[in-house]
């Protein structure tokens, strides 16, 4: 009897607690309304991202839906909720321009998780804040000039020749291949070599220790994010980064890798044209060992999947658009010849049709499908009475913009001519590399490895559709990285030219 009463009492206590929690959320969900901002109907307990939280839909598709809900109702922005936390969500290009460029001083930071002591891998330029970010960004800017890119170009040529050798036997037999998986190995080898100075050799052997680490960083189930968010009461989607970096094995692996490389180079006076060499030189400006590890780690994570998915998504579209593929190959053969090992940096980057095809791929499948910032200074949204408070996260749906029929008619069509000189793209509707002072610093490197990889592949091979991949590639709903990751790979049939 006494036991029953105890059970009853604790049930009542739990139910009351849940109810109080529910009422508290209901109260939180009035935040935007009270500030005169348009909002939707957020649900307990995950706010406006419910379908994404339960793994039913990718967070990028959910944001695209939210983008249209506000825009189609005639709003220039909306207020949304992640759990019970408010997020400012601009959808009009003018407000997006203000956020990224004109009023940048209010939104200098991204609000990503960063803890130099507990998780040193998080202390990189993508997460850094305020003055510290400004200083490091200034130091890094000369690292990404076209001169520096050219000096690394030879490493890329070697890896792209290796890629051809790996694909040759497949193409001889006209087989199908998951080109995404293969190109991830291509970019792993390039960035492994340029950022860490190691020969990952994942094109030959996908099961190296390096690749095991990569899997640990990127293959995390989405429920982990929500579990962490709920446990820690975190309301900022920027904390997504903590999942990938909160791993002692990964931390130790990259620490040891960088320490061994630096010691070896110092001892043997080795100077190589790569990012690691530039990072080592920065020691004279006060950069510490753990900072070097974090930056190298970021170059790897920021550069490997963004570029490989751009290449594989482009191949997929070319497989479905044979005339475009033939036209592009013709441009490559006419201007660069048939010996891809001799293609130069300047010549590859100067191909206009290749440029249009890459731009159109980045439009249809933006690898970073949302931009994020956090408010660091109170901000009155222009022409409204709504003030965005300090520490409010901000999200821009890049997928929403890129697939908005008003800016890009028939958005699922792959049409490189959208980027011809005669067709003007409306400002701040095309943002594959973000914009403003905090845009992608690795843009040149990303384009270099993407364009060289594509030119080399198209020189030697023809690509055809595979029934294993849908016509329009779908986003993996379980992705916990910031990258638009395609579900079930990108399959294509490949034959020699
Ligand atoms: C096709 C390839 C790539 C795409 C589409 C891409 C896209 C992006 C985007 C959208 C952002 C956020 C910009 C913003 O918030 O306004 C970003 C930031 C960044 N990217 Fe990339 N990226 C690519 C390749 C690379 C590569 C190869 C590297 C390095 C080697 C790199 C390094 C970075 C860094 C360091 C940042 C943070 C910059 C800062 O906060 O100051 N990216 N990238």
Features of the shown structure:
two-stranded antiparallel ribbon; Cytochrome p450; mainly alpha; 52% helix; binds protoporphyrin IX containing FE; globular; 497 residues; 19 helices
Care to describe what's here?
There is one protein chain. With 497 residues, this protein is mainly alpha-helical. It folds into 2 domains: 1-30; 36-496, Cytochrome P450 (Cytochrome p450, Orthogonal Bundle). It contains 19 helices and 9 strands. It has helices at residues 2-28, 31-34, 50-53, 59-72, 93-102, 130-140, 146-172, 179-196, 209-218, 222-232, 240-245, 248-267, 275-281, 289-320, 322-336, 345-349, 352-364, 398-402, 443-460; strands at 77-82, 85-90, 176-178, 370-374, 379-380, 387-388, 393-397, 461-465, 491-496. The strands form 4 sheets. It has a 3-stranded antiparallel sheet. Helix 7 runs antiparallel to helix 8, helix 7 runs parallel beside helix 19 and helix 14 packs across helix 17. The relative contact order is 0.16. The structure holds protoporphyrin IX containing FE. Protoporphyrin IX containing FE (HEM) is lined by residues 125-126, 137, 298-299, 302-303, 306-307, 310, 367-368, 371, 432-435, 438-442, 445-446, 450.
The radius of gyration computed from the alpha-carbon positions, rounded to a whole number of angstroms, is 24 Å
Helix content: 40-55%
Biggest pleated-sheet summary: 3 strands, antiparallel
- Strand fraction equals 5-15%
> What's the rounded overall pLDDT mean?
89
What is the count of DSSP helices, taking H or I runs of 4+ residues?
A: 19
Based on the coordinates given, report the CATH architecture of the largest domain. Answer: Orthogonal Bundle
- Amino-to-carboxy terminus distance: 83 Å
- Write down the CATH class of the largest domain: Mainly Alpha
Protein name: Cytochrome P450 346A2
Cofactor: heme
Keywords: Endoplasmic reticulum, Heme, Iron, Membrane, Metal-binding, Microsome, Monooxygenase, Oxidoreductase, Transmembrane, Transmembrane helix
Membrane topology: Peripheral membrane protein
């Amino acid at each position: 009897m006494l036991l029953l009463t105890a059970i009853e009492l604790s049930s009542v206590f739990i139910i009351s607690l849940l109810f109080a929690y529910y009422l508290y959320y209901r109260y939180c969900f009035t935040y935007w309304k009270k500030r005169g901002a348009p909002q939707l109907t957020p649900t307990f307990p995950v706010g406006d991202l419910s379908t994404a939280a339960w793994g039913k839909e990718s967070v990028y598709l959910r944001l695209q839906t939210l983008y249209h809900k506000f825009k189609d109702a005639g709003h220039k922005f909306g207020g949304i909720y992640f759990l019970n936390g408010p997020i400012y969500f601009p959808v009009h290009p003018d407000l997006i321009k203000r956020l990224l460029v004109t009023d940048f001083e209010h939104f200098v930071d991204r609000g990503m998780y960063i803890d130099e002591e507990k998780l040193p891998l998080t202390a990189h330029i993508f997460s850094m804040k305020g003055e510290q970010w400004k200083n490091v960004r200034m130091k890094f800017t000369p690292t990404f000039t076209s001169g520096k890119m050219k000096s690394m170009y030879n490493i890329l040529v070697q890896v792209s020749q290796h890629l051809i050798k790996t694909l040759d036997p497949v193409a001889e037999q006209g087989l199908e291949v998951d080109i995404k998986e293969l190109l991830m190995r291509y970019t792993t080898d390039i960035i492994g070599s340029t950022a860490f100075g190691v020969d990952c050799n994942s094109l030959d052997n996908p099961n190296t220790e390096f690749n095991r680490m990569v899997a640990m960083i990127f293959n995390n189930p989405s429920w982990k994010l929500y579990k962490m968010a709920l446990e820690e009461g975190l309301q900022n989607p920027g904390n997504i980064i903590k999942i990938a970096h909160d791993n002692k094995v990964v931390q130790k692996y990259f620490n040891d890798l960088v320490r061994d490389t630096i010691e070896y180079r110092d001892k043997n006076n080795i100077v190589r044209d790569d990012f690691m060499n530039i990072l080592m030189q920065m020691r004279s400006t006060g950069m510490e060992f753990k900072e070097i590890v974090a930056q190298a780690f970021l170059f790897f994570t920021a550069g490997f999947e963004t570029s490989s998915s751009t290449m594989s998504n482009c191949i997929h579209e070319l497989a479905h658009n044979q005339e475009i593929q033939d036209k592009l190959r013709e441009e490559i053969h006419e201007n660069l010849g048939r010996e891809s090992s001799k293609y130069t940096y300047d010549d590859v980057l100067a191909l206009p049709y290749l440029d249009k095809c890459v731009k159109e791929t980045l439009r249809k499948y933006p690898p970073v499908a949302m931009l994020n910032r956090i408010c660091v200074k109170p901000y009155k949204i222009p022409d409204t009475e709504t003030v965005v408070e300090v520490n409010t996260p901000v999200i821009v749906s890049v997928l929403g913009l890129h697939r908005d029929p008003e800016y890009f008619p028939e958005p699922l069509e792959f049409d490189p001519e959208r980027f011809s000189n005669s067709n003007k793209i409306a400002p701040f509707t095309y943002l594959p590399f973000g914009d403003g002072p905090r845009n992608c610093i690795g843009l040149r490197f990303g384009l270099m490895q993407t364009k060289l990889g594509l030119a080399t592949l198209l020189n030697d091979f023809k690509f055809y559709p595979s029934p294993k991949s849908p016509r329009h590639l779908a986003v993996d709903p379980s992705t916990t990285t910031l990258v638009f990751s395609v579900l079930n790979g990108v399959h294509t049939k490949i034959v020699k030219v």
